[in-house]
Amino acid sequence: MKYHPGWPSKLESAVEEININEIGTTAFIIAGIRALEESRERPMFSDPYAQLFLNPELRETVTQLTQVHFAVADAIRLRTVAFNVIVESDIKRGVRQIVTLGSGFDMRHRIFASDDVRFFDVDQSAVLQFKAAVLAKADVPGCTAIPCNYLEADLPEELIRAGLDPDAETLIIWEGNTMYLPGELIMGFLNRLCARLSRFRIGFDYFPASLLDGTYENAEAVEIVRGVQKVMNVTFITGFDSLQSFETEAPFRIIDTGNIFEIGTRLGGPGTEEKLGETAKITQELAACYRIALLERS
Length: 298
Fold this sequence. Notes:
The chain is an alpha/beta fold and 298 residues long. 47% of the residues lie in helices and 14% in strands. The protein contains 14 helices and seven strands.
């Protein structure tokens, strides 16, 4: 698809036509929700770079979406808080390599910038080219970019070629990806990572499989998630009712898991739930079936 109208001509000349898959398209929505956080009376996080990826038309579209479907926005806000804390705490632990899969317009490489921490963005070439053009125009440094379909490419080799030390502790952020990916390819991909990277943690968000096929115990939750897909114009194809396969079919152990509300409010610290205000109850209804897992290569 041609990217959204309203961009300056200089940027248009840099990336005239881009083909962004569903995950890439949602990057605009995610950036918009993160940008709106700056204007909230009680923000849960700060991402001053997100607005760089928006024009007035996009900003208005996201504003309207969050007003009508605020549970979507609050779930993404909580997810952002949770992954921010995972990144921040791992940096404090001494991790100096952070890989973001399906990175979209994620800007944690600037938000948590440190001279001795190296970030790697992995996404489709069109997404990374667009992101690079936007950041160059704003004179904002980017990070190491790995353009590929990581399910098909030899990602460990690409990362090592780009400077990642396969024997140094690494954090991999897999935010907003697993539900879009064919389930039969996920475990093979993770095992390929484990074969080359000896020390890493990976954090990801997911839905129960029963929620996506309509057999989940809470029919209201099924309808909420169907509504989320419609609003965001995406299709969720893979979920996990149990994480046991990650320990039996790959060399992982589960470090932490829980629904997005529990983990988001717990990791976000005191006052996070209050910052959600009157939408907290509705957010909990969605968040109860939207989960995060943190795994460690064993």
